[in-house]
Amino acid sequence: MGHRQAVMGWAFAMSIAAAAWSPLQAQTQKGTLIFAVESLAAQTMDPILEARPGNATYQAAMYDALIGFNIEKGGTGPGVAERWELSEDGLTWTFHIRPGQKFHNGDPLTAHDAQFSLRRQMAPNSLASAAASFRRTIKSIDVSDDLTFRVTTVTPQIGLPALLSRAVAAEGAIMPKAYIERVGEEEFRRKPVGSGPWRFTRSVPGDRIEFEAVAGPHWRGTPHFKELHILLVPEESTRVAMTRTGEAGIASIGPESMIGAARGGLEVLSVPGTMQALFQFWGSYLPAFKDSPVANPRVRRALSLAIDRQQIIDHVMNGKASMPYPFDAFGYTEYFDAAKWRKWSDDAFRYDPVLAKKILTEEGYPNGFELNFANTALPGTQFMVDIGTAVADMWTKIGVRVKLRHYEWGSFAPLVRGDQALLAGGASMYRTVGRPDMPWRFEASFAADSEQHLIGDKTICEAACQAFAAVYKDLLAERDPVKRTALTDRMVELVSETWTAVPIIEGMGYYAINARKAGKFTAIPGRHELGDVFERIPRPDEAPWKK
User: Fold this and answer.
1) What is the model's pTM?
2) Does residue 26 surpass a pLDDT of 70?
3) Across the strands, what pairs with 433?
């Protein structure tokens, strides 16, 4: 028997809830839930043409993913597949499809659809972020029967289920094989069909996407509202005003709008564990910077000690943030000793400017040094710029002469590619996102052949770089949970000791809610977007939804 993963979670409870559904519930579906959002991304309903933001906001309403969520803790849980298991040799994942699922056109959802969907995500015309990786690592996808299929990989891929979860990306979205083969891709994109709790009705480019609730029971939850409208409203103040007047029931907001929204009579929902804002150093290992202060891990640590994170949480984030774990780690991270690293983080990320100054003096910089610092914000996180400005000010207080330069994300993103000439030898703001699988993000930041290659590249890979490569290789192949956790700990330790990518705060997702238009609900930890929550949002006259 293969090595089984802990995947059942809340699946049994959800099946009981679905069984208890009665036709009367369809009659009580009424009203329209209106959600005002800052971006509709590509506004395509084809999962192979959309990245995480769009998929997680509006595609999630109508498409189910092969792997779902742990609703209470965040991270992965049962989805279209109710359970999965890994073979003894670590090369084959077997997925067992939840029985009785149907697409919106009435076609049954089977393992053939899952096979078709994954192959489509790997196709040359796919824009999926993992498409190239899947083509390299997946050897075959075979259907055993209507409710079972197997994915065989070239090398062990312990994190494959997480990659097929919407907790991570769009690659796990399940599409209707028979329908697409019958009508063709263009017609599918014009009239998409999914299996989620909301069926697509229309899309107005640059304006809105509209859905209608399914009338029958759904394992994710049967919608309380009859319709769901997602409106594109780029200006945040307009979104807040629309929610205050009742034109929208929910609006995405940033921390700078939270106080005003609350004072205006709106509820404010904070979603925990969605991201980390951090600062990271570029090219500090290069020979050109061997005598630079940024090449010294103790100096980089001193810069962390000079940051008053609680001040940033209280005054920049209006109290709606928390102290971080190590890089890319969250309370729901898989194979991660959260209690151990919470204790470590509380000490390592403390505010101690006296010690920071002492370290700089010991390392030969009693009067500080000059540091180039690129301040930028990824889309939807404009508060990162305010955090970066606050950090730069705190560094000046220990003598660091910060040369602060602000970049729009569109102009900053190309700088991280290639030789990173305009960033090397300096630092920048950056962020991680809340996902349960840690190794992929570590690989993208620290592997010598990765785009960011923060601790070494293909030509210069010294002790820290080599140690990371070794532990990462072992981690990919390790199936034993205890040993995998130990390897994860070692990977976190290696990276943390370099002080190359340093978390500042753990951020949240923020929403303003008009209680006259939408009832109270809680979100999924780590799930910034609400695409998998819409069906659980009660109407104002109904009891609050609780996990």
Assistant:
1) 0.83
2) no
3) 275
